[in-house]
């Protein structure tokens, strides 16, 4: 990371916002990922050791939103729509075009929705920012999420679980479970196996 | 993404867009935009091929952020007022009509065509016509049916709306849904294919 918080390899002429905390071993492919980032919390995004985000990842984070990426979490192009909290655990593998939304951003009631849509054109960023209740998303350690999947507000995905490509997760997923489909259904369980890190090839 | 003018601000954090940041003023001649409607993204009209007069008419106060208007030669599209679309892909070979106060989430697709024929022999003819060697060759007939989306509809991210569908006023299309049939007004649908899972209060 450069002192001025630009990235020497970046194609986009942006900077890393001051309240994005990036571990020195983490990798950010482009600051374009932060163009919708507007969190005002002291820490809006935190990258753990060896975490990485690649092109297509978009932190669409509201003023009170907070996103945390665990150690070695690999986010290969997710849309993170966060007004409260999205936690992605250690060793998580997140594929392209995955949507995490802890909020619907617009009210369910169509009258209230009209009022918000009438406010959007007056907002310089042209984003919806209604006071819609947000429910945190929690992706636990060692989860793998396939491309185009959607994770709806309030969902927890348990440790070691797998979400199939194009699934829409509407209910909490227990640990070590494979889910797939739209809406997602349990397909089977997976064995945790030997999780002793020292049994893998050499130290990092 | 190549033109600096159309880019959003380079830093995130609640910084206002500088004037002129939106791609404005270089729309095709048969596109009409209402007052205070903005269309961003250099790719918005990259696949806009319609030759119809007033092929695309968008009402007032709309935000079309990163939307792709992919209209075929005979495509016609009308969008009402106060619509809010982010990074939607709108594929129109015939007709797409969208009401007012419609919100469409990121990476959603709306199409009024099958793109290719279903019958295998006709698909061979289509592959030939579409190939670099098929110039001037007529394509076989392809199924197209208008898509109609009424007022106050919410469409979630990663949703897909297929040809011939009418979505009733106030309906809520949950994220990731694949909508293959008409949706009654004020119903909430989810799934692939999308099924009614509830209703929306008035």
Pair with the biggest interface: A-B, 50 and 43 residues
Strand fraction of chain B: 25-35%
Which structural class fits the helix and strand makeup of chain A? mainly beta
Strand order, biggest sheet of chain B? 2-4-7-10-13-16-18-19
**Roughly what is the average pLDDT of chain B, rounded to an integer?**
87
What would you report as the Rg of chain A, rounded to the nearest angstrom?
18 Å
Q: Give me the strand/helix succession of chain A.
A: EEEEEEEEEEEHEEEEEEEE
> Residue ranges of chain A: pLDDT <50 for 5 or more in a row?
none
Which word captures the global form of chain B?
Answer: globular
Identify low-pLDDT runs of chain B: 1-22
| Largest beta-sheet characterization of chain A | 8 strands, mixed
Give the overall silhouette of chain A.
globular
**What's the Cα radius of gyration of chain B?**
18 Å
Specify the biggest β-sheet of chain B: 8 strands, mixed
Taking strands numbered 1, 2, ... along the chain, how are they ordered across the largest sheet of chain A?
A: 2-4-7-10-13-16-18-19
Q: What count of helical segments of chain B does DSSP give? A: 1
How would you summarize the topology of this molecule?
The complex is a heterodimer of chains A (204) and B (202).
Chain A: E1 20-22, E2 27-28, E3 45-47, E4 52-53, E5 58-61, E6 66-69, E7 74-75, E8 78-82, E9 85-88, E10 93-94, E11 98-101, H1 110-119, E12 137-139, E13 144-145, E14 150-151, E15 156-157, E16 162-163, E17 168-169, E18 177-180, E19 185-189
Parallel strand pairs in A: 1-3, 2-4, 3-6, 4-7, 5-8, 6-9, 7-10, 8-11, 9-12, 10-13, 11-14, 12-15, 13-16, 14-17, 16-18
Antiparallel strand pairs in A: 18-19
Chain B: E1 31-33, E2 38-39, E3 56-58, E4 63-65, E5 68-71, E6 76-79, E7 84-86, E8 89-92, E9 95-98, E10 103-104, E11 109-111, H1 120-130, E12 147-149, E13 154-155, E14 160-161, E15 166-167, E16 172-173, E17 178-179, E18 187-190, E19 195-199
Parallel strand pairs in B: 1-3, 2-4, 3-6, 4-7, 5-8, 6-9, 7-10, 8-11, 9-12, 10-13, 11-14, 12-15, 13-16, 14-17, 16-18
Antiparallel strand pairs in B: 18-19
């Amino acid at each position: 990371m450069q002192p001025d918080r630009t990235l020497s390899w970046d194609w986009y002429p942006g900077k890393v916002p001051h309240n994005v905390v990036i571990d020195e071993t983490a990798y950010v492919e482009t600051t374009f990922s932060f163009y919708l980032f507007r969190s005002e919390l002291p820490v809006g995004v935190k990258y753990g050791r060896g975490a990485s985000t690649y092109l297509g990842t978009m932190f669409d984070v509201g003023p009170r939103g907070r996103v945390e990426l665990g150690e070695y979490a690999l986010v290969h192009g997710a849309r993170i729509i966060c007004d409260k909290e999205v936690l992605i655990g250690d060793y998580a593998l997140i594929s392209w075009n995955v949507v995490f939304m802890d909020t619907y951003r617009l009210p369910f009631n169509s009258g209230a929705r009209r009022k918000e849509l009438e406010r959007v054109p007056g907002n310089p960023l042209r984003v919806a920012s209604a006071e819609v209740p947000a429910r945190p998303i929690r992706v636990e350690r060692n989860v793998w999420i396939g491309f185009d999947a959607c994770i709806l507000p309030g969902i927890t995905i348990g440790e070691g679980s797998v979400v199939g490509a194009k699934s829409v997760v509407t209910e909490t997923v227990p640990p070590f479970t494979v889910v797939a489909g739209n809406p997602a259904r349990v397909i089977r369980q997976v064995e945790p196996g030997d999780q002793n890190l020292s049994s893998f090839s050499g130290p990092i | 993404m190549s033109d600096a003018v159309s880019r959003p601000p380079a830093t995130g954090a609640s910084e206002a867009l500088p004037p002129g940041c939106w791609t404005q003023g270089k729309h095709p001649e048969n596109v009409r935009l209402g007052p205070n409607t903005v269309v961003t993204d250099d790719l918005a009209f990259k696949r806009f091929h319609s030759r119809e007069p007033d092929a695309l008419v968008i009402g007032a106060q709309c935000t079309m952020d990163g939307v792709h208007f992919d209209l075929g030669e005979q495509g016609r599209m009308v969008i009402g007022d106060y619509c809010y679309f982010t990074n939607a892909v709108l594929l129109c070979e015939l007709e797409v009509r969208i009401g007012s106060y419609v919100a469409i989430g990121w990476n959603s697709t709306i199409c009024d065509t099958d793109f290719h024929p279903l019958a295998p022999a006709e698909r061979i003819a289509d592959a030939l016509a579409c190939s670099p060697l098929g110039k001037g060759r007529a394509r076989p007939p392809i199924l197209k049916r208008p898509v109609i989306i009424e007022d106050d509809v919410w469409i979630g991210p990663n949703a897909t709306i297929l040809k011939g569908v009418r979505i009733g006023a106030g309906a809520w299309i949950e994220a990731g849904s694949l909508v293959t049939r008409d949706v009654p007004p004020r119903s909430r649908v989810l799934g692939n294919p999308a099924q009614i899972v509830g209703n929306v209060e008035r």
